[in-house]
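Exercise 7. Given the encoded structure of a 188-residue chain, write a plausible sequence.
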């Protein structure tokens, strides 16, 4: 008894004609998103064409090059505005308690809080709120809000970064932070 062989259809996406690539254009880290919302990473490119198993000839797909978005924040200092002259409070101790990142139309981000001489923690914001109908699997979401991150460390002993390698929007529109400041000197 022989087993039937099923041939899967494969769809070719001609990137050369769609994006006016030349033969020497480097195509690295290409990814493709299907209409169902599936992300296919590291798509193989042969002769300017991306191949994907299945019949996607009459469907809308998104093809692009994957990249890492990353921001590393500078050291946080408490500042004062003295008649338009902005100065930092650098003589005391600034203990950062929490960081609040304001975002709009954002689908995913991860915040890494790394302590000098210690460990690091990763906090992920996925835009999925349990219990809501909009949190169905396969949907790309873009929410507005505030993402709270605990820090609880001295300002110059922590490095905070935001990064994303996902093919969803990321838009940071502002940031607040809470701190405790202790002055080491007294003005006379």
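Solution.
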């Amino acid at each position: 008894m022989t087993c039937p062989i099923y041939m899967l259809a494969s769809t070719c996406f001609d990137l050369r004609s769609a994006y006016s690539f030349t033969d020497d254009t480097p195509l690295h880290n290409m990814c493709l998103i299907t209409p169902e919302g599936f992300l296919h990473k590291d798509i193989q490119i042969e002769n300017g064409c991306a191949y994907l198993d299945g019949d996607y000839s009459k469907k809308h797909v998104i093809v692009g090059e994957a990249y890492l978005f990353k921001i590393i924040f500078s050291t946080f200092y408490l500042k004062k505005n003295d008649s338009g002259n902005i100065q930092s409070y650098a003589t005391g101790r600034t203990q950062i308690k929490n960081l609040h990142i304001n975002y709009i139309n954002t689908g995913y981000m991860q915040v890494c809080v790394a302590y000098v001489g210690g460990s690091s923690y990763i906090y992920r914001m996925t835009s999925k709120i349990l219990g809501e109908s909009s949190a169905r699997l396969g949907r790309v979401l873009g929410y507005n809000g505030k993402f709270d991150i605990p820090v609880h460390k001295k300002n110059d002993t922590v490095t905070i970064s935001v990064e994303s390698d996902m093919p969803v929007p990321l838009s940071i529109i502002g940031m607040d932070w809470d701190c405790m400041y202790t002055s080491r000197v007294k003005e006379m």
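Remark. The CA atoms of residues 56 and 177 lie 47 Å apart. Students should compare their own answers with the one above.
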